[in-house]
Amino acid sequence: MSGVQRLMLDRVSKEFATPLGTLPVVKDVSLTVRDGEFISIIGPSGCGKTTILNMIAGLQQPTSGALLLDGRPITGPGADRGVIFQDYGVFPWLTVKENIAFGLTLRANRVPKPDRDGIASRYIDLMGLSGFENAYPKTLSGGMKQRVALARAYAIKSGILLMDEPFGALDAQARSAMQNLLLEVLRSEGKTVVLVTHSVEEALYLSTRIVVVTARPARIRTIVDVPFEHPRHEELHRSQRFGELQYELREVVMREYATQARLRGEDVRAADLQ
Question: pTM here?
Answer without folding.
Answer: 0.86
